[in-house]
Amino acid sequence: MAEIVSILNLKGGVGKTTTTINLGKALSLCGKKVLVIDNDPQANLTHGVGVDSPETTIYHTYKFKEGLAVYEVDKNFSVVPSQLSLASIENEVDSSIYRYNILKDVLTPVSDKFDYILIDCPPSLGVYTINAVTASTKYIITTQTASYSIDGLFEAIKLIEGEIKKGLNKDIELMGVLITQYFTNRIASDVALEKLENKFEGKIFKTKIRHTTKFREAELSGEDIFSYDKQCYGAVDYMGLAKEISE
To answer: Where are the beta strands (DSSP E) in the chain?
Structure first.
């Protein structure tokens, strides 16, 4: 059975999509069978792995209760794409009696085909994020060392460890907190990191994802960081994270 991992923070621009794509690809390069799910109406992950104008997406899962549309991107690396129309049905999904179990129900038939299923979540407490964490065995919080990002981290953990565990998924666990866009040798970054390590002792990943413009370049070209530049900091760091997780 797959380890199903939601990747989230309630703030945008903190590396959720970048992490889902590149951690997923790194795990696949380590020989793991990986599925990444674009669970965000912005569909940035879909574009980031080079899937253009897919006929069927996760929209059809939420709208029509269809099974997941899985597209193979590379060896051991597959994706369920999204589309902008997902935003237009959010209120409709949120009013359904089965609203929080839609993703969980469709993941059950495919979970034994993969080692890891990574779910990219929107930066909100909405129905799509709750679907993801309800379906997951673990979750990863991505955060910068900036205060606004850390605020989003605390809000996400409060939601999951409170309402989600009490009512929807008592077994979900925090896999770890991932520091992204990290600047080495900056006093402010070091101070914030120390505070996080004190608060989440043993739950901060040893691997930090260093800042590099290569991520943006790779996303614009519709490639993961390994396909774009496997020698850059980004590729080195995400491979390090993949090994840390799989070990």
So the answer is: 3-8, 34-38, 71-74, 77-80, 116-120, 138-143, 173-179
